[in-house]
Amino acid sequence: MLADPTTTPADADALAAAVHPADPSAPQVSVLDLAVTRGDGIFETLDAIDGYGQALEPHLARLANSARLLDLPAPSLELYREGIRQAIEASGHPRLSVKLVLTRGVEGAGICTGWVYAEPVPDFSIARTEGVTVVTLDRGYKHDVAQTSPWLLQGAKTLSYAVNKSVYREAERRGADDVIFISSDGFVLEGPTSTVVLQFGTHLVTPSTDQGILAGTAQAAVFEFGEANGFTTEYRTVTPDELLAADTVWLASSVRQIVPVVAIDGTPRGFDTAVHTAALDYLLARRS
User: What is this structure's pTM?
Assistant: First the structure.
């Protein structure tokens, strides 16, 4: 737990002391905390391999941006860095999922609640090698929702995950593993917990983030891989028919890394095995 997640202690000793080890199986958060009663808060999840947090700075930048979108006090990124360091060190596990949380705290108290939690990563090897099936679902918003209705908080990573969990249950009812959201005016957006990346030969494409979708840290790493290996990259609007026309469609996320999509709405599709393997190796090799 973080003593005050929006205040940076004055020196290194105070910074270390502001991180309080806590038993995750014991009560730590008040039942009156707005994260519990309203889902009013934000989070980030990053992968840590061999003691190194992957894409640490982009995740911290995204945490700060989500706080801004929710009108939360700015998180102390120095304190979260220290919390991440201590959580990874305390675990000692070679592969970790590290979650950063900031809530508005108890209503009226004026103090936010924050913590960092690390746990071993599940085994995603089957999904990474054999792929996942997806269904496309209407998100219920037009693709320009971030511009027309910023109060809907599209593009913020919030604790309000009821919709995300609901769409996974819908995917299961339809016999699929995952979901790709489509805007109500017909553009590809993102997955509930992932970014969509498409490969067309030596060209990589992802939906642009001005459509109310989250900037993907794993997607950025896929583009880094591509640019280092002769691929061109592009952020733009994507239409659903391109999901079947692409050589490869990936779902990219911090902990699962990248998984190829092998069926969309019941229609099988292949993927470029050589490019997928090389890109996955690149992502897994990151140590910063």
Answer: 0.92
Neighbouring C-beta atoms of residue 70, cutoff 10 Å: 17
- Provide the 3-class DSSP secondary structure of residue 124: coil
| 150 three-class SS | helix
Q: How far apart are CA 155 and CA 215, in angstroms?
A: 8
Alpha-carbon distance 191 to 259, whole Å? 12
Residue 213 domain-assigned? yes
CATH of residue 227: 3.20.10.10
Task: Give me the pLDDT at residue 121, please.
Answer: 93
Q: Which amino acid is at 52?
A: Y
Torsion angles phi and psi, residue 61, rounded to 5 = -65, -40
pLDDT greater than 90 at residue 92: no
| 81 CB burial (10 A radius; 0-12, 13-18, 19+) | middle
Dist. CA 15–CA 266, nearest whole Å: 52
Element (DSSP H or E) covering residue 175: none
Q: CA neighbours within 13 Å on the CB side: how many for 45?
A: 16
5 within domain boundaries: no
Domain that holds residue 27: 12-120
115: phi then psi, degrees, rounded to nearest 5: -155, 165
Half-sphere exposure of 59 (CA within 13 A, CB side): 26
Q: Does 133 lie in the same domain as 112?
A: no
173 burial (CB, 10 Å; 0-12 / 13-18 / 19+) is: exposed
Nearest Cα neighbor of 117 from 29, 193, 217 is: 29
